[in-house]
Amino acid sequence: MKRPVKALSILLCLMAAPALAQVSNKGGPMGFGADHQQDNAKDHTHLLEGHVEMQQDNARLRCDQIKFFSAAPNGNEQSSGWGAIIRFEADGNIYYVVDDETVKADHAVYTKDNDTIIFTGEVIISQGQNVEVGNKLIYNKATGLMTMDANPINNAAQGRVKGVVYPDKKTDNSPAKPVATTPPKP
Question: Can you give the pTM of this predicted structure?
């Protein structure tokens, strides 16, 4: 009897996968893995725990635990099952990568209504050699706007957003200089 329940749980998660398009702006199918999965059809939640990994197109999310909150199917709170994912909360060792940008944090919350992920704790964002550190990063996926804040209580950031930025190497836009040539000997 346990096998059909597990198969049903996996099937329901796979059916919900298109709604998990929040990990990547590009959408598409999503792969995921974890040590443990728990679904609750009555409160419309999915829980993945232990070495959680999710990948969708150009985005990857790793964490210790993530809980998805779904809308009730067809807007009926009395029905069991899942609708679209409306929020997720990730905890522990957050590692979020999109293209060449990486965010590390302790906690992350995504809200579909404003298409925003809020990272908190010791937050480190990097792009190539560029690094910024703070306590709270707000990333609006729709607009691409990122805002970093620092909390004076956290000793790591000492109340200030800190970073190191390496400017692009200067390119010389002047016209090419003629190459000196020596005339051939007669």
Answer: 0.72
